[in-house]
Write a structure and sequence with these properties.
Strand content: 35-45%
Number of helices: 4
Structural class: alpha+beta
Largest sheet: 13 strands, antiparallel
Radius of gyration: 39 Å
Shape: elongated
Length: 436
Protein backbone atom coordinates (compact mmCIF):
# COMPACT_ATOMS: atom_id res chain seq x y z
CA UNK A 1 0.00 0.00 0.00
CA UNK A 2 1.13 3.58 -0.65
CA UNK A 3 2.54 5.64 2.22
CA UNK A 4 0.81 8.76 0.89
CA UNK A 5 -2.57 7.09 1.41
CA UNK A 6 -1.99 6.71 5.13
CA UNK A 7 -0.42 10.16 5.40
CA UNK A 8 -3.58 11.60 3.82
CA UNK A 9 -5.76 9.61 6.22
CA UNK A 10 -3.84 11.01 9.22
CA UNK A 11 -4.28 14.51 7.79
CA UNK A 12 -8.05 13.97 7.40
CA UNK A 13 -8.44 12.58 10.89
CA UNK A 14 -6.46 15.28 12.67
CA UNK A 15 -7.91 18.19 10.68
CA UNK A 16 -11.28 16.84 11.74
CA UNK A 17 -10.14 17.08 15.35
CA UNK A 18 -9.10 20.68 14.72
CA UNK A 19 -12.53 21.38 13.25
CA UNK A 20 -14.11 19.76 16.34
CA UNK A 21 -12.20 22.15 18.61
CA UNK A 22 -13.13 25.15 16.43
CA UNK A 23 -16.76 24.06 16.46
CA UNK A 24 -16.70 23.80 20.25
CA UNK A 25 -15.18 27.28 20.50
CA UNK A 26 -17.86 28.77 18.25
CA UNK A 27 -20.62 26.92 20.13
CA UNK A 28 -19.39 28.47 23.41
CA UNK A 29 -18.99 32.00 22.10
CA UNK A 30 -21.57 33.18 24.66
CA UNK A 31 -20.69 30.80 27.51
CA UNK A 32 -19.73 32.65 30.69
CA UNK A 33 -15.94 32.73 31.21
CA UNK A 34 -15.34 30.05 28.54
CA UNK A 35 -11.72 29.64 27.49
CA UNK A 36 -11.08 28.83 23.84
CA UNK A 37 -9.10 25.76 22.77
CA UNK A 38 -6.29 25.65 20.22
CA UNK A 39 -4.97 22.65 18.28
CA UNK A 40 -1.34 22.29 17.24
CA UNK A 41 -0.01 19.55 14.96
CA UNK A 42 3.27 17.67 14.91
CA UNK A 43 4.92 15.46 12.33
CA UNK A 44 4.27 11.76 12.71
CA UNK A 45 6.71 8.92 12.12
CA UNK A 46 9.38 9.14 9.45
CA UNK A 47 10.65 6.02 7.67
CA UNK A 48 14.42 5.93 7.15
CA UNK A 49 15.24 4.79 3.62
CA UNK A 50 18.94 5.50 3.77
CA UNK A 51 21.12 6.60 6.65
CA UNK A 52 23.54 9.48 6.64
CA UNK A 53 27.25 8.96 5.86
CA UNK A 54 30.26 10.93 7.06
CA UNK A 55 32.49 12.72 4.54
CA UNK A 56 35.20 10.15 3.53
CA UNK A 57 37.76 12.88 2.91
CA UNK A 58 37.89 13.20 -0.88
CA UNK A 59 34.22 14.21 -1.25
CA UNK A 60 31.25 15.29 0.85
CA UNK A 61 28.97 13.30 3.11
CA UNK A 62 25.40 12.18 2.34
CA UNK A 63 22.33 13.24 4.28
CA UNK A 64 19.79 10.70 5.50
CA UNK A 65 16.86 9.88 3.24
CA UNK A 66 13.51 9.73 5.05
CA UNK A 67 9.86 9.62 4.06
CA UNK A 68 7.27 11.08 6.42
CA UNK A 69 4.31 8.91 7.38
CA UNK A 70 1.78 11.59 8.19
CA UNK A 71 0.99 13.89 11.12
CA UNK A 72 -0.44 13.77 14.64
CA UNK A 73 -2.08 16.01 17.22
CA UNK A 74 0.68 17.89 19.05
CA UNK A 75 -1.48 19.53 21.73
CA UNK A 76 -4.92 20.91 22.43
CA UNK A 77 -4.29 23.98 24.60
CA UNK A 78 -6.67 25.98 26.75
CA UNK A 79 -6.12 29.70 26.10
CA UNK A 80 -6.51 31.32 29.52
CA UNK A 81 -6.62 34.85 28.14
CA UNK A 82 -8.72 37.40 30.05
CA UNK A 83 -12.24 37.71 28.64
CA UNK A 84 -14.13 40.97 28.41
CA UNK A 85 -16.24 42.08 31.40
CA UNK A 86 -20.01 42.42 30.99
CA UNK A 87 -22.01 44.43 33.55
CA UNK A 88 -25.11 42.67 34.89
CA UNK A 89 -26.03 44.63 38.04
CA UNK A 90 -26.64 41.49 40.13
CA UNK A 91 -24.50 41.68 43.27
CA UNK A 92 -23.90 37.91 43.29
CA UNK A 93 -22.44 38.02 39.76
CA UNK A 94 -18.65 38.14 40.08
CA UNK A 95 -15.89 38.50 37.50
CA UNK A 96 -12.21 37.87 38.16
CA UNK A 97 -9.73 40.24 36.58
CA UNK A 98 -6.46 38.33 36.66
CA UNK A 99 -5.38 34.69 36.43
CA UNK A 100 -7.13 33.26 39.49
CA UNK A 101 -10.11 30.93 39.90
CA UNK A 102 -13.05 30.74 42.27
CA UNK A 103 -13.05 27.66 44.51
CA UNK A 104 -16.26 25.61 44.78
CA UNK A 105 -16.86 22.40 46.69
CA UNK A 106 -18.99 19.30 46.41
CA UNK A 107 -18.57 17.73 49.82
CA UNK A 108 -14.81 17.28 50.27
CA UNK A 109 -14.06 17.62 46.55
CA UNK A 110 -12.86 21.00 45.36
CA UNK A 111 -13.23 22.36 41.83
CA UNK A 112 -12.22 25.62 40.21
CA UNK A 113 -14.08 27.96 37.92
CA UNK A 114 -13.89 31.38 36.28
CA UNK A 115 -17.67 31.50 35.92
CA UNK A 116 -18.98 33.79 38.67
CA UNK A 117 -22.73 33.72 38.05
CA UNK A 118 -23.46 32.65 41.63
CA UNK A 119 -26.75 32.52 43.51
CA UNK A 120 -27.91 32.15 47.13
CA UNK A 121 -29.76 28.88 47.77
CA UNK A 122 -32.53 28.13 50.28
CA UNK A 123 -29.99 27.56 53.07
CA UNK A 124 -28.25 30.87 52.42
CA UNK A 125 -25.21 29.26 50.78
CA UNK A 126 -23.51 30.98 47.86
CA UNK A 127 -23.59 28.37 45.07
CA UNK A 128 -22.96 27.85 41.38
CA UNK A 129 -26.38 27.58 39.68
CA UNK A 130 -25.17 25.01 37.13
CA UNK A 131 -24.56 22.23 39.67
CA UNK A 132 -25.10 23.60 43.19
CA UNK A 133 -21.43 23.44 44.20
CA UNK A 134 -20.80 25.79 47.15
CA UNK A 135 -18.44 28.75 46.88
CA UNK A 136 -15.57 28.60 49.37
CA UNK A 137 -14.13 31.35 51.54
CA UNK A 138 -13.45 32.61 55.03
CA UNK A 139 -16.44 33.24 57.30
CA UNK A 140 -16.73 36.02 59.88
CA UNK A 141 -18.44 35.94 63.29
CA UNK A 142 -19.66 39.36 64.48
CA UNK A 143 -17.20 41.00 62.14
CA UNK A 144 -14.21 38.86 63.20
CA UNK A 145 -12.67 36.26 60.83
CA UNK A 146 -12.92 32.55 61.61
CA UNK A 147 -9.88 30.40 60.81
CA UNK A 148 -10.14 27.97 57.90
CA UNK A 149 -11.76 27.84 54.47
CA UNK A 150 -15.39 26.68 54.42
CA UNK A 151 -18.75 27.05 52.68
CA UNK A 152 -19.93 30.66 52.43
CA UNK A 153 -23.35 31.14 54.03
CA UNK A 154 -25.31 34.39 53.86
CA UNK A 155 -28.70 33.59 55.44
CA UNK A 156 -31.09 36.51 55.34
CA UNK A 157 -32.60 37.01 58.75
CA UNK A 158 -29.36 36.40 60.63
CA UNK A 159 -28.82 38.88 63.43
CA UNK A 160 -25.97 40.98 64.73
CA UNK A 161 -25.77 41.52 68.48
CA UNK A 162 -26.12 44.96 70.01
CA UNK A 163 -22.91 46.78 70.91
CA UNK A 164 -22.58 49.33 73.70
CA UNK A 165 -21.14 52.72 72.78
CA UNK A 166 -17.47 52.95 73.73
CA UNK A 167 -16.39 56.13 71.93
CA UNK A 168 -18.04 59.45 71.14
CA UNK A 169 -16.22 62.01 68.98
CA UNK A 170 -16.71 65.75 69.45
CA UNK A 171 -16.18 68.09 66.52
CA UNK A 172 -16.76 71.71 65.65
CA UNK A 173 -15.82 75.09 67.08
CA UNK A 174 -16.40 76.95 70.33
CA UNK A 175 -16.65 80.74 69.95
CA UNK A 176 -13.42 82.32 71.22
CA UNK A 177 -15.10 85.74 71.30
CA UNK A 178 -17.91 84.61 73.60
CA UNK A 179 -17.96 86.20 77.10
CA UNK A 180 -17.53 84.16 80.25
CA UNK A 181 -20.66 82.46 81.52
CA UNK A 182 -22.56 84.60 84.08
CA UNK A 183 -26.04 84.78 85.48
CA UNK A 184 -26.61 88.12 83.74
CA UNK A 185 -26.44 90.21 86.92
CA UNK A 186 -22.74 89.96 87.68
CA UNK A 187 -22.61 86.51 89.31
CA UNK A 188 -20.66 83.50 88.00
CA UNK A 189 -23.93 81.67 87.48
CA UNK A 190 -24.82 78.01 87.79
CA UNK A 191 -24.88 76.33 84.32
CA UNK A 192 -26.80 73.38 85.76
CA UNK A 193 -29.66 75.75 86.72
CA UNK A 194 -32.03 76.27 83.76
CA UNK A 195 -32.95 79.71 85.09
CA UNK A 196 -29.32 80.82 85.04
CA UNK A 197 -28.81 79.35 81.59
CA UNK A 198 -31.83 81.27 80.33
CA UNK A 199 -30.18 84.53 81.41
CA UNK A 200 -27.00 83.71 79.52
CA UNK A 201 -28.23 81.88 76.44
CA UNK A 202 -28.13 84.92 74.16
CA UNK A 203 -24.50 85.72 74.97
CA UNK A 204 -23.08 82.54 73.38
CA UNK A 205 -21.18 81.41 76.48
CA UNK A 206 -23.34 78.30 76.90
CA UNK A 207 -23.64 75.47 74.33
CA UNK A 208 -25.69 72.29 74.48
CA UNK A 209 -25.24 69.26 72.23
CA UNK A 210 -26.58 65.69 72.31
CA UNK A 211 -26.34 62.29 70.64
CA UNK A 212 -28.02 58.91 70.93
CA UNK A 213 -25.80 56.25 72.54
CA UNK A 214 -26.47 52.55 73.21
CA UNK A 215 -26.04 50.17 76.12
CA UNK A 216 -25.21 46.45 75.87
CA UNK A 217 -28.85 45.54 75.18
CA UNK A 218 -29.11 48.04 72.35
CA UNK A 219 -31.30 50.40 74.38
CA UNK A 220 -31.03 54.01 73.26
CA UNK A 221 -29.99 56.75 75.69
CA UNK A 222 -29.77 60.44 74.87
CA UNK A 223 -26.36 61.69 75.98
CA UNK A 224 -26.63 65.46 76.49
CA UNK A 225 -23.48 67.48 77.13
CA UNK A 226 -23.50 71.11 78.28
CA UNK A 227 -20.47 73.37 77.69
CA UNK A 228 -19.86 76.86 79.06
CA UNK A 229 -16.95 79.25 78.94
CA UNK A 230 -15.14 79.81 82.25
CA UNK A 231 -11.86 81.42 81.11
CA UNK A 232 -10.31 82.85 77.98
CA UNK A 233 -8.88 79.44 77.07
CA UNK A 234 -11.19 77.10 79.02
CA UNK A 235 -14.66 75.64 78.53
CA UNK A 236 -16.17 73.41 81.20
CA UNK A 237 -18.51 70.59 80.30
CA UNK A 238 -21.00 68.38 82.15
CA UNK A 239 -23.50 65.66 81.28
CA UNK A 240 -27.13 66.69 81.69
CA UNK A 241 -28.39 63.65 83.62
CA UNK A 242 -32.05 64.68 83.90
CA UNK A 243 -33.57 62.47 81.19
CA UNK A 244 -31.26 59.50 81.78
CA UNK A 245 -32.00 59.47 85.53
CA UNK A 246 -35.71 59.45 84.71
CA UNK A 247 -35.09 56.38 82.54
CA UNK A 248 -33.51 54.46 85.44
CA UNK A 249 -29.84 55.13 84.71
CA UNK A 250 -27.70 55.31 87.89
CA UNK A 251 -24.14 55.66 89.15
CA UNK A 252 -22.83 58.41 86.90
CA UNK A 253 -19.09 59.09 87.07
CA UNK A 254 -16.65 61.11 85.02
CA UNK A 255 -19.62 63.20 83.92
CA UNK A 256 -17.89 66.58 84.01
CA UNK A 257 -14.59 68.17 83.10
CA UNK A 258 -13.01 70.94 81.03
CA UNK A 259 -11.35 71.52 77.68
CA UNK A 260 -8.48 73.97 77.33
CA UNK A 261 -7.16 75.56 74.18
CA UNK A 262 -3.82 76.93 73.08
CA UNK A 263 -3.04 80.35 71.69
CA UNK A 264 -3.51 78.97 68.16
CA UNK A 265 -7.11 77.92 68.87
CA UNK A 266 -6.37 74.17 68.89
CA UNK A 267 -7.27 71.96 71.80
CA UNK A 268 -4.67 70.97 74.36
CA UNK A 269 -5.05 67.21 74.21
CA UNK A 270 -6.29 65.91 77.55
CA UNK A 271 -4.42 62.93 78.95
CA UNK A 272 -6.14 60.68 79.60
CA UNK A 273 -9.26 61.34 77.56
CA UNK A 274 -12.37 61.91 79.70
CA UNK A 275 -14.47 58.78 80.30
CA UNK A 276 -18.19 58.99 81.11
CA UNK A 277 -19.67 55.91 82.79
CA UNK A 278 -23.15 55.00 83.98
CA UNK A 279 -25.23 51.95 84.83
CA UNK A 280 -28.28 51.43 82.61
CA UNK A 281 -31.03 49.14 83.92
CA UNK A 282 -30.64 45.44 83.16
CA UNK A 283 -27.16 45.41 81.63
CA UNK A 284 -23.48 46.13 82.25
CA UNK A 285 -21.90 49.50 82.95
CA UNK A 286 -21.39 51.67 79.88
CA UNK A 287 -18.03 53.48 79.70
CA UNK A 288 -17.82 56.11 76.96
CA UNK A 289 -14.56 57.80 76.02
CA UNK A 290 -15.15 61.40 74.99
CA UNK A 291 -12.69 62.21 72.20
CA UNK A 292 -12.24 65.88 71.25
CA UNK A 293 -9.62 65.05 68.61
CA UNK A 294 -6.31 66.84 68.05
CA UNK A 295 -5.09 69.82 66.05
CA UNK A 296 -7.27 71.83 63.72
CA UNK A 297 -9.34 68.75 62.90
CA UNK A 298 -10.36 68.33 66.54
CA UNK A 299 -12.47 70.54 68.77
CA UNK A 300 -11.28 74.14 68.25
CA UNK A 301 -11.73 77.61 69.71
CA UNK A 302 -11.76 80.31 67.04
CA UNK A 303 -13.76 83.52 66.85
CA UNK A 304 -17.09 82.81 65.21
CA UNK A 305 -20.30 80.92 65.76
CA UNK A 306 -20.13 77.91 68.09
CA UNK A 307 -20.74 74.79 65.97
CA UNK A 308 -19.70 72.08 68.42
CA UNK A 309 -21.55 68.75 68.08
CA UNK A 310 -21.23 65.17 69.24
CA UNK A 311 -20.32 63.97 65.77
CA UNK A 312 -20.49 60.18 65.87
CA UNK A 313 -20.40 57.14 68.14
CA UNK A 314 -19.64 53.44 67.66
CA UNK A 315 -22.55 51.70 69.42
CA UNK A 316 -25.61 50.15 67.80
CA UNK A 317 -28.74 48.17 68.52
CA UNK A 318 -29.34 44.57 67.42
CA UNK A 319 -30.14 44.23 63.72
CA UNK A 320 -31.19 41.75 61.03
CA UNK A 321 -29.36 41.14 57.75
CA UNK A 322 -31.10 43.09 55.02
CA UNK A 323 -28.67 43.11 52.10
CA UNK A 324 -25.01 42.51 51.28
CA UNK A 325 -22.36 43.76 48.90
CA UNK A 326 -19.04 42.36 47.62
CA UNK A 327 -15.97 44.52 47.12
CA UNK A 328 -12.92 44.05 44.85
CA UNK A 329 -11.13 41.94 47.49
CA UNK A 330 -14.04 39.49 47.63
CA UNK A 331 -15.08 40.73 51.09
CA UNK A 332 -18.82 40.30 51.62
CA UNK A 333 -20.27 43.03 53.84
CA UNK A 334 -23.76 42.74 55.27
CA UNK A 335 -26.07 45.73 55.67
CA UNK A 336 -28.26 45.26 58.76
CA UNK A 337 -31.53 46.94 59.67
CA UNK A 338 -29.80 48.88 62.47
CA UNK A 339 -27.72 50.72 59.88
CA UNK A 340 -24.53 48.81 60.73
CA UNK A 341 -22.32 47.20 58.09
CA UNK A 342 -20.58 44.01 59.28
CA UNK A 343 -18.12 41.74 57.46
CA UNK A 344 -19.78 38.38 56.78
CA UNK A 345 -17.30 36.42 54.64
CA UNK A 346 -14.47 36.72 52.12
CA UNK A 347 -14.26 34.71 48.91
CA UNK A 348 -11.04 32.75 48.45
CA UNK A 349 -9.24 32.56 45.10
CA UNK A 350 -6.95 29.84 43.71
CA UNK A 351 -3.86 30.24 41.52
CA UNK A 352 -1.96 27.55 39.63
CA UNK A 353 1.58 27.34 38.29
CA UNK A 354 0.19 25.89 35.06
CA UNK A 355 -3.53 26.63 34.58
CA UNK A 356 -3.29 25.12 31.09
CA UNK A 357 -2.80 21.76 32.80
CA UNK A 358 -6.23 21.81 34.47
CA UNK A 359 -8.81 19.21 33.47
CA UNK A 360 -12.16 20.41 32.17
CA UNK A 361 -14.85 18.50 34.06
CA UNK A 362 -17.96 20.21 32.65
CA UNK A 363 -20.29 22.88 34.02
CA UNK A 364 -17.56 25.52 33.48
CA UNK A 365 -15.48 23.73 36.13
CA UNK A 366 -11.87 22.56 36.20
CA UNK A 367 -10.10 19.90 38.24
CA UNK A 368 -6.48 19.49 39.23
CA UNK A 369 -4.27 17.29 37.04
CA UNK A 370 -0.73 15.97 37.45
CA UNK A 371 0.70 18.88 35.43
CA UNK A 372 -1.39 21.78 36.72
CA UNK A 373 0.26 21.94 40.12
CA UNK A 374 -1.68 22.25 43.34
CA UNK A 375 -4.02 25.14 44.05
CA UNK A 376 -2.41 28.07 45.88
CA UNK A 377 -5.20 29.68 47.90
CA UNK A 378 -5.27 33.37 48.75
CA UNK A 379 -7.48 36.44 48.81
CA UNK A 380 -7.79 39.10 46.13
CA UNK A 381 -5.04 41.72 46.25
CA UNK A 382 -3.44 39.87 49.19
CA UNK A 383 -2.14 36.37 48.45
CA UNK A 384 -3.45 36.71 44.89
CA UNK A 385 -2.80 39.56 42.46
CA UNK A 386 -6.24 39.17 40.91
CA UNK A 387 -9.29 41.15 42.04
CA UNK A 388 -13.04 40.70 41.91
CA UNK A 389 -15.62 42.86 40.15
CA UNK A 390 -19.13 42.56 41.60
CA UNK A 391 -22.22 42.99 39.42
CA UNK A 392 -20.39 41.75 36.32
CA UNK A 393 -19.44 38.53 34.52
CA UNK A 394 -16.45 37.54 32.45
CA UNK A 395 -17.43 36.82 28.86
CA UNK A 396 -16.07 34.06 26.63
CA UNK A 397 -12.64 34.84 25.17
CA UNK A 398 -13.52 33.23 21.81
CA UNK A 399 -12.52 35.51 18.89
CA UNK A 400 -15.01 34.74 16.12
CA UNK A 401 -12.87 36.35 13.42
CA UNK A 402 -9.94 34.13 14.42
CA UNK A 403 -12.15 31.05 14.63
CA UNK A 404 -13.64 31.57 11.16
CA UNK A 405 -10.15 32.07 9.74
CA UNK A 406 -9.00 28.87 11.44
CA UNK A 407 -12.10 27.15 10.08
CA UNK A 408 -11.11 28.05 6.50
CA UNK A 409 -7.57 26.80 7.10
CA UNK A 410 -8.84 23.54 8.61
CA UNK A 411 -11.30 23.06 5.75
CA UNK A 412 -8.62 23.59 3.12
CA UNK A 413 -6.26 21.26 4.95
CA UNK A 414 -8.97 18.61 5.09
CA UNK A 415 -9.72 19.16 1.41
CA UNK A 416 -6.06 18.89 0.40
CA UNK A 417 -5.58 15.68 2.36
CA UNK A 418 -8.69 14.18 0.81
CA UNK A 419 -7.21 15.00 -2.60
CA UNK A 420 -4.03 13.11 -1.63
CA UNK A 421 -6.14 10.07 -0.79
CA UNK A 422 -8.06 10.36 -4.07
CA UNK A 423 -4.88 10.60 -6.13
CA UNK A 424 -3.27 7.73 -4.20
CA UNK A 425 -6.34 5.63 -4.90
CA UNK A 426 -6.12 6.46 -8.62
CA UNK A 427 -2.48 5.42 -8.66
CA UNK A 428 -3.37 2.12 -6.97
CA UNK A 429 -6.10 1.67 -9.58
CA UNK A 430 -3.51 2.06 -12.31
CA UNK A 431 -1.36 -0.61 -10.65
CA UNK A 432 -4.33 -2.98 -10.53
CA UNK A 433 -5.09 -2.31 -14.20
CA UNK A 434 -1.54 -3.32 -15.30
CA UNK A 435 -2.63 -6.95 -15.44
CA UNK A 436 -5.13 -6.24 -18.17
Amino acid sequence: MMRSLFAGVSGLRNHQVRMDVIGNNVANVNTVAFKAGRVTFKEGFAQLLQGASRPPGDHGGINPIQVGLGMQIGSIDQMFVQGNIETTGANTDLAIQGDSFFVVAKGNEHYYTRSGNFQVDADGRLVSPTNGFVVQGKMYDNGKPIDGIQDIRLPFGQKTAASATANVNIAGNLDASAPLFTDGVGGAGDPTDPAHRALDVNKGAFVKTSMTVYDGLGTKHELKVDMWKTAADTWNWAVDQTDMLAAGVTNFSGDSGSFTFGNDGTITTPAPLPVISFDPPGTDTVAITLNPGVGVNGLSQFAGTSTVVLRDQDGYAAGTLQNFSIDRTGLITGAFTNGVNVSLAQIVLADFNNPGGLLRVGDNMYGVSGNSGGAVLGFALEGSQSFVTSGALEMSNVDLAQEFTSMIVAQRGFQANSRVITNSDEMLQEVVNLKR
